[in-house]
Amino acid sequence: MKVVLMVVLALAVALTGALTFANRGPEKPPIAAEPVVPNAMLADTRASTIGEILLPVGFRRTDLSGFGQWLRGRPLLPADSQLLDWNGKPVKFQYGHYRIVDLSVPKLQQCSDSIQRLRAEWLWEEGRQREISFQVDGQPYPFRGNGRADLTSYLRHVASRTSTTSMAVEMPRLPAGGVVGSGDVLIHPASAIRRGHVVLVVDEAVDQTGRRLLLIGQGFNPAKQFHLIKNSKDRALSPWHDAAILNGEGLRTPSWLETYKLDDGRTWP
């Protein structure tokens, strides 16, 4: 008897649900989420070189020559590329880079080494091989080879014997009243109480009022691909950075906790 009653009750519940569903009409579509409009700077996937990266409205690239102009021509990997370490494996932190420069990354090529590599590659392409020289153990160590294999061997040796400390000694500070521009570096030399790091200014722009913007690139330790960094403080400006911040609160990169000030700027001798 109990079984019959249970069956009757189940049929009644099912019939009530069916009538309710029929009376409420067709299922309404889910409410669409508010569209997320990506930052124009972060959405730029068309640039194939540093010099093609979009500028904020009202800005133009400054006139450059030498190393700074050469940096604008550096090719970029596809925008969806993952940042890799020297062993070809994706690094854990994939959110701080904007685009990756198409440059091989040997095991010893860390932050200062990647910048020295770019400087040497520029001189090589300019046919100025005999001007390739970096400080090793406190002394100039010029390149004296002939072919690419010799240059690779030279840079490997330089990377094994130099650091942010030696780079800070080798590269003079900015002249009084000077500004950081394309080809210059911002450097925190290593010491007994902290690790060092250095970044490279790879492009610059200006508007009609004289406001200057900088594009920043870096390698890292452990060695990973040289990449352009996002502006994590001002996403509307990213990947560009306001140069004026160097005279104020300082510039902080996504992967380095300390801030860079104008006094951290260095230029090439």
Secondary structure blueprint with pairings:
Layout: H1 2-23, E1 60-61, H2 66-72, E2 97-100, H3 111-125, E3 133-136, E4 139-142, H4 148-161, H5 164-170, E5 185-188, E6 197-206, E7 212-218, E8 227-229, E9 240-242, E10 251-253, E11 256-260, E12 265-266
If you had to describe this structure to a student in words, what would you say it looks like?
The chain has helices spanning 2-23, 66-72, 111-125, 148-161, 164-170; strands at residues 60-61, 97-100, 133-136, 139-142, 185-188, 197-206, 212-218, 227-229, 240-242, 251-253, 256-260, 265-266. By secondary structure, the protein is α+β, with helices and mostly antiparallel strands. The strands form 3 sheets. Strands 1, 2, 5, 6, 7, 8, 9 and 12 form an 8-stranded antiparallel beta sheet that branches. A two-stranded antiparallel ribbon has the order 3-4. The protein starts with a helix and ends with a strand.
Sum up the overall morphology in one term: globular
Point out poorly predicted stretches. Answer: 1-41
**How many helices in DSSP terms?**
5
Instruction: Sketch the major β-sheet.
Output: 8 strands, antiparallel
Helix content: 10-25%
Chain oligomer state: single chain
Rg over CA atoms: 27 Å
Structural class: alpha+beta
Query: What proportion of the residues form beta strands (DSSP E)?
Result: 15-25%
Distance between the termini: 101 Å
Tell me the domain tally: 1
Order of helices and strands: HEHEHEEHHEEEEEEEE
User: What is the strand tally?
Assistant: 12
Average pLDDT rating: 86
Care to give the gist of this entry?
With 269 residues, this protein is of the alpha+beta class. The protein contains five helices and twelve strands.
